[in-house]
Recover the amino acids of this structure.
């Protein structure tokens, strides 16, 4: 391929300058990467009003499956939903990923606080069992932030458990809007999904393959 240049060779000069700039960036990046050698099980929070919190969590679960890493999902709210991710995992990857749908729907659907609390507690007990197992490399606690927001679960208890009992190399992902500030402070990785535009506001219902 011949590079177009003017009489002064400006095109070639631009190419050389770009190559030199990228070489400097690569050298700096390599130095940074060389200093990052410690493995650690992360506490990861996906929160915010925008879409994509659970979707991102399930994306990481699929990455674990692709790497042959045992993992697990506990759903705190959407247990009654027939979701695509649940179908896929249970039908094809049950040997690598345990899937526990423990929720009974959103609180305005059950309209029974005691029942919601009982379901959340049952989900948390299952979550603790899974997190304690050092063979399980990632546990996704889908929509647990909602249970924490409504005080169905005690935040101090959850944080104390993660500090004391989470194995060093186990990743725990907690999704749901309105994550508590204390959880955000404790987590290693926090992403906030920002709502810019959503079809629901235009009268469009949840779509298969997008929301579930």
């Amino acid at each position: 391929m011949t590079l177009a240049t003017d009489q002064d060779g400006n095109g070639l000069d631009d190419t050389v300058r770009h190559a030199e700039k990228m070489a400097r960036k690569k050298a700096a990046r390599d130095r940074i990467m060389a200093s990052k050698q410690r493995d650690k099980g992360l506490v990861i929070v996906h929160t915010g009003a925008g879409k994509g919190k659970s979707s991102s969590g399930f994306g990481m679960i699929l990455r674990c499956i692709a790497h042959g890493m045992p993992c697990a999902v506990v759903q705190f709210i959407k247990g009654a939903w027939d979701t695509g991710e649940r179908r896929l995992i249970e039908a094809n990857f049950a040997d690598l990923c345990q899937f526990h749908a423990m929720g009974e729907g959103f609180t305005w659907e059950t309209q029974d606080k005691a029942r919601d609390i009982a379901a959340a507690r049952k989900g948390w007990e299952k979550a603790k069992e899974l997190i304690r197992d050092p063979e399980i490399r990632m546990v996704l606690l889908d929509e647990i932030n909602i249970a924490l927001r409504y005080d169905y679960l005690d935040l101090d208890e959850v944080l104390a458990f993660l500090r004391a009992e989470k194995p060093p190399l186990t990743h725990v992902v907690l999704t749901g809007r309105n994550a508590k500030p204390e959880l955000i402070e404790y987590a290693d990785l926090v992403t906030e999904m920002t709502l810019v535009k959503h079809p629901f506001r235009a009268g469009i219902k949840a779509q298969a393959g997008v929301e579930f």
User: Anything to note?
Assistant: DSSP finds eight helices and six strands in the chain. The mean pLDDT is 88. The helical segments are 10-34, 53-66, 84-92, 107-110, 113-132, 144-149, 155-165, 181-186. The longest helix spans residues 10-34.
